[in-house]
C-alpha cells in the first residue's frame, strides 16, 4: 500500500492518483517517477520539500494506483499532456519539475512547452538514447500477457541492474513497486506501459533544449547501465543553464541508492534557485555532501 494518502482527479486519458502535500499557496513542484515506479519513489523526498513547496507527485497513467486503460496513449508525449491537465485542474500554471528516468523525459517536454521555472533531472532519458538496448529487448521479446511472477522478476532484475547499493531496497519496497502490476489485469498493463515508452518528442529536441532558459540540475549515477553518464554530459552541453553532479558508486535508481545525498541536493537547489531563498541550517550544523568520481581501478564498496 502506498505510504501516502492519494487523491484522484480525472484527465482525458483516465483517472490519475497523486500525492499532494504542502500549502497550495506555496510555489508548486511536480515530481515525476520513472518505470516501473509510482509516487512511492518520492516517499523520502516529498515530506522534505512540503514545508516549503506545494508538492504534487502523480502516479503516471498506467502506473501505481492510477487507471490502467487498455486503449489510451501512454507515450511520454501523452503523459506530458496528462500531467499538464492535472496541474491545470489544480490551478497551477508555473512550477518546478523533478523527473527520474522517463519521467525526466516528460519533464523536458513540459519545460519545452512553458510553465517550468526550474528543473531537476535524475538519470533521465534524452535525445535518441531511449529505449536503451536492455529495455528495447524487453519491449520486443516479452509476452503480451506475462505472469505476475514474471513481471515481479523483471522488476527485481531492473533494480538489481540499476542500483549500486541493492541491499537498500527492501522486500517491502519491491512488493510496493510490483503491487500495481499484480492480479489478473496487472501483467498486461505492465506490458502495455513498457511498450508505450518511447523517445517521441525528444529525438529532435536538442536545438530546442539549447534555447531553453530554465535552470536545471542534472543528478546522475556514475554506474547507470541504462542511461550512461555520456547522456548526462550531452544534456549538460545542450541545456545552457544546467549543472551536472555525478554520484560515484550509484546507478540508475538514485532515489533508492543515495536518498541521504540527493535529497539535500535537490532541496538546496530548489530553495536557492526556484524559491530564491538564502541557505539556513539546523543548529547541529550544515549537511556536508561530497561529490566526485571514483579513482580509476577502485571497486565500488572498497
Please, could you describe this protein's structure?
α2 (76-89) packs across α3 and α5 (148-162) crosses α6. The chain has eleven helices and eight strands. The protein has helices at 46-49, 76-89, 102-112, 133-141, 148-162, 171-178, 186-196, 206-210, 229-238, 254-257, 259-274; strands at 6-11, 14-21, 28-32, 54-58, 95-100, 116-122, 216-221, 242-247. The chain is 35% helix and 16% strand. The protein has a domain at 6-131 and 196-274: Alpha/Beta hydrolase fold, catalytic domain (Rossmann fold, 3-Layer(aba) Sandwich), CATH 3.40.50.1820. The radius of gyration is 18 Å and the shape is globular. It has an eight-stranded mixed beta sheet with strand order 1-2-4-3-5-6-7-8, with helices on both faces. The longest helix has 16 residues, at 259-274. With 302 residues, it is of the alpha/beta class. α9 links the parallel β7 and β8 (242-247).
- What is the fold-level CATH name, i.e. the topology of the domain at 6-131 and 196-274? Rossmann fold
Largest sheet: 8 strands, mixed
Could you give the order of the helices and strands? EEEHEHEHEHHHHHEHEHH
Q: Main sheet: which strands, in order across?
A: 1-2-4-3-5-6-7-8
Q: What is the architecture of the domain at 6-131 and 196-274 at the second tier of CATH?
A: 3-Layer(aba) Sandwich
Main CATH class of the domain at 6-131 and 196-274: Alpha Beta
Measured distance between first and last alpha carbons: 36 Å
What would the keywords be for this entry?
globular, 8-stranded mixed β-sheet, Rossmann fold, 302 residues, single chain, alpha/beta, 8 strands, 16% strand
Amino acid at each position: 500500500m502506498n505510504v501516502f494518502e492519494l487523491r484522484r482527479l480525472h484527465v482525458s486519458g483516465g483517472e490519475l492518483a497523486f500525492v499532494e502535500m504542502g500549502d497550495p499557496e506555496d510555489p508548486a513542484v511536480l515530481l515525476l517517477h520513472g518505470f516501473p515506479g509510482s509516487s512511492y519513489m518520492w516517499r523520502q523526498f516529498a515530506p522534505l520539500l512540503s514545508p516549503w513547496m506545494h508538492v504534487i507527485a502523480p502516479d503516471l497513467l498506467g502506473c501505481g494506483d492510477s487507471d490502467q486503460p487498455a486503449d489510451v496513449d501512454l507515450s511520454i508525449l501523452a503523459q506530458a499532456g496528462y500531467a499538464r491537465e492535472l496541474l491545470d485542474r489544480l490551478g497551477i500554471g508555473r512550477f518546478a519539475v523533478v523527473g527520474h528516468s522517463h519521467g525526466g523525459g516528460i519533464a523536458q517536454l513540459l519545460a519545452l512547452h512553458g510553465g517550468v521555472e526550474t528543473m531537476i533531472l535524475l538519470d533521465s532519458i534524452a535525445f535518441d538514447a531511449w529505449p536503451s538496448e536492455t529495455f528495447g529487448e524487453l519491449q520486443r521479446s516479452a509476452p503480451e500477457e506475462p505472469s505476475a511472477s514474471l513481471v515481479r522478476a523483471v522488476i527485481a532484475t531492473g533494480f538489481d541492474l540499476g542500483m549500486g547499493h541493492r541491499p537498500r531496497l527492501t522486500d517491502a519496497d519491491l512488493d510496493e513497486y510490483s503491487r500495481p502490476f499484480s492480479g489478473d489485469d496487472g501483467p498486461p498493463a505492465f506490458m502495455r506501459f513498457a511498450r508505450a515508452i518511447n523517445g517521441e518528442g525528444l529525438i529532435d529536441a536538442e536545438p530546442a533544449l539549447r534555447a531553453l532558459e530554465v535552470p536545471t540540475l542534472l543528478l546522475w549515477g556514475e554506474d547507470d547501465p541504462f542511461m550512461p553518464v555520456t547522456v548526462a554530459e550531452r544534456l549538460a552541453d545542450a541545456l545552457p543553464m544546467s549543472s551536472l553532479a555525478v554520484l560515484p558508486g550509484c546507478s540508475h535508481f538514485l532515489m533508492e541508492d543515495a536518498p541521504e545525498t540527493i535529497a539535500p541536493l535537490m532541496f538546496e537547489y530548489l530553495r536557492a534557485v526556484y524559491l530564491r531563498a538564502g541557505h539556513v541550517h539546523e543548529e547541529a550544523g550544515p549537511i556536508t555532501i561530497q561529490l566526485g568520481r571514483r579513482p580509476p581501478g577502485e571497486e565500488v564498496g572498497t
